[in-house]
Design goal:
This is LexA family transcriptional regulator. The protein contains five helices and nine strands, in the order ααααββαβββββββ. It has about 200 residues and is of the alpha+beta class. Helix 1 packs across helix 3 and helix 2 crosses helix 3.
Amino acid sequence: MGIPKNIDALLVKFDLKPESLARIAGVSTATVSRWRTGQTDNIRKANLEEHGRVPSGAKLPSEPRPAYAPLLGRVYAGDACEPDVIDDRIPIPYEVRSAHPDGYFLEVEGNCMSRVYPEGCHIYIDPRQQPRNGSVAVVSIDGADYVMRRLYNTGRTIVLSPDSWDDPYEDIVITGEDERTVEYVGTVVWFQPAEEME
């Protein structure tokens, strides 16, 4: 079926008059008439240049701007432990860095969060973004040990829950009666592999 027959079928199917189709398509009634009789070039060919132009007010994609964030250490996705300190800079999309200017990277060690963050990847955490229930956060337990888990806070109980393909990990549950402290370090807002796959 050619263009003229397709246009006629559209007019019948949607009970349209040529004037209505012209208004919808943003063309003159004469143009619709020429389409129906086959007196004009293929629509795609005739309008290719017109459709290729950027609409008024639209932004063209710009060249990516480089951005870097510090890689400060490793965080264990498993049992809480002292963090390893690293001093490096990692490239990050400019938009992510500008939305979270105080953020920094940590390298994931362990498989406790393997369903969402594989071991060895870099997570970008924002220390200013408060976690919501279910957010993945990095916390310090008792002022020393750091761990990355899903955080659930019921007001009197904090549950740090693993999200792993492996079974041996259990929730860390800290209640108001415990003498343990939990200090929020940051919420994970981005992640990326440590290097490109080969």
